Amino acid sequence: MNLNATLFAQLVVFFILAVFTMKFVWPPLIKSIDERAKKIADGLAAAERGKQALAEAGRKAEQELAVSRSENQQRLAEAEKRAQQIIEEAKQQAEVERKRILAQAEAEAANEAQRARDQLRDQLATLVVKGAEQILKKEVNAQAHADLLNQLKAEL
């Protein structure tokens, strides 16, 4: 076999194979590589959009959390204010009740003192009658002298 003919045949086969590869094999490979590169680029872009969306959601969540905290602080302040109002109202009601009870007790004490005075007047009138009876050495009829006793009570 001739070395030149073999080399020439190999060269022809190589060029045929190269042309065949460039015409039929290479375009689908390049197309697959381009599609794969496009998918990777789309995936990276989607990941970047996801990161941005996550960051935005985090900012929104922080804002909502801050709003919720401020609302809670406001509600707590309102609740404390309302509690103070309720305490003040209770104090005022207790003061009114204390004054009412005190007035009632004073009235009862005055009534009791009046009853005691009346009893003392009655006892004094009885003692005066007995004393007068002993002084006069005669019996004084309390029924007959009721007007006199009532005048004496009124004077006392």
TrEMBL record:
* Source organism superkingdom: Bacteria
Summarizing the function annotation, the protein's role is: F(1)F(0) ATP synthase produces ATP from ADP in the presence of a proton or sodium gradient. F-type ATPases consist of two structural domains, F(1) containing the extramembraneous catalytic core and F(0) containing the membrane proton channel, linked together by a central stalk and a peripheral stalk. During catalysis, ATP synthesis in the catalytic domain of F(1) is coupled via a rotary mechanism of the central stalk subunits to proton translocation. Component of the F(0) channel, it forms part of the peripheral stalk, linking F(1) to F(0). The b'-subunit is a diverged and duplicated form of b found in plants and photosynthetic bacteria.
Q: Which CDD domains match?
A: ATP-synt_Fo_b (cd06503)
The residue stretches assigned to a coiled coil in this entry are 44-130
Coarse class of the primary localization is membrane
Subunit structure and binding partners: F-type ATPases have 2 components, F(1) - the catalytic core - and F(0) - the membrane proton channel. F(1) has five subunits: alpha(3), beta(3), gamma(1), delta(1), epsilon(1). F(0) has three main subunits: a(1), b(2) and c(10-14). The alpha and beta chains form an alternating ring which encloses part of the gamma chain. F(1) is attached to F(0) by a central stalk formed by the gamma and epsilon chains, while a peripheral stalk is formed by the delta and b chains. F-type ATPases have 2 components, F(1) - the catalytic core - and F(0) - the membrane proton channel. F(1) has five subunits: alpha(3), beta(3), gamma(1), delta(1), epsilon(1). F(0) has four main subunits: a(1), b(2) and c(10-14). The alpha and beta chains form an alternating ring which encloses part of the gamma chain. F(1) is attached to F(0) by a central stalk formed by the gamma and epsilon chains, while a peripheral stalk is formed by the delta and b chains.
In Swiss-Prot or TrEMBL terms, this protein is called ATP synthase subunit b
Residue ranges crossing the lipid bilayer per the database entry: 6-26
Similarity remark: Belongs to the ATPase B chain family.
Keywords, A to Z, come to: ATP synthesis, Cell membrane, CF(0), Coiled coil, Hydrogen ion transport, Ion transport, Membrane, Transmembrane, Transmembrane helix, Transport
Q: Where in the cell is it found?
A: Cell membrane; Endomembrane system
Q: How does it sit in the membrane?
A: Single-pass membrane protein
